């Protein structure tokens, strides 16, 4: 592999096609980039071995599976407690994504199984370490794949 970052233009095209549709066949990708299916397979294998491609996954629209409002909850927690709270939130029912900021805040995208957000939080967290939190209803979200 040559070029910037060890990837050539064909590698970049293959990655773009896989990002757009991870189930696209190697033969179809080969047609798009001017290679045979086996040549694309070899390149994908090299990209995986190099750690460029970590795996293939299905992206599921959770809103089709869950009921209730999608929420974004921002929590301010006591310094030194962010890791424990972050880990607890990762195991909580209904959590889609969890972010930890440098200023001891956590941001959670969630469809909680209960309308009582405070009770839901209390099921997973020691609320004594939560200094404050805000709950916002999510109106729209898009995942951007590049």
Detailed description of the structure:
This protein is of the alpha+beta class. The chain folds into 2 domains: 4-49, Arc Repressor Mutant, subunit A (Orthogonal Bundle), CATH 1.10.10.10; 62-137, Alpha-Beta Plaits (2-Layer Sandwich). 34% of the residues lie in helices and 18% in strands. The protein has helices at residues 9-20, 26-33, 37-49, 82-90, 117-124; strands spanning 71-77, 95-100, 105-110, 130-137. It has a 4-stranded antiparallel β-sheet with strand order 2-3-1-4, with helices on one face. A hairpin with a 4-residue loop joins strand 2 and strand 3. The chain starts with 8 loop residues before the first helix and ends in a 9-residue tail after the last strand.
Give the CATH superfamily of the largest domain: Lrp/AsnC effector binding domain/regulation of amino acid metabolism (RAM) domain
Percent of residues in β-strands: 15-25%
For the secondary structure, the number of strands is 4
Question: What's the alpha carbon Rg, rounded to whole Å?
Answer: 21 Å
Q: Compute the number of helices.
A: 5
Please state the overall shape, judged from the principal axes of the Cα atoms. elongated
* Secondary-structure content class: alpha+beta
The arrangement of helices and strands along the chain is HHHEHEEHE
- Could you please say which CATH topology of the largest domain applies here? Alpha-Beta Plaits
What is the highest CATH level, the class of the largest domain?
Alpha Beta
With strands numbered from the N-terminus, the spatial order across the biggest sheet is 2-3-1-4
| Mean pLDDT across every amino acid position | 86
Distance between the termini: 21 Å
How many domains, in number, for the residues?
A: 2
Tell me about the largest β-sheet. Answer: 4 strands, antiparallel
**Fraction of residues in helix:** 25-40%
CATH architectural category of the largest domain: 2-Layer Sandwich
| Low-confidence parts | none
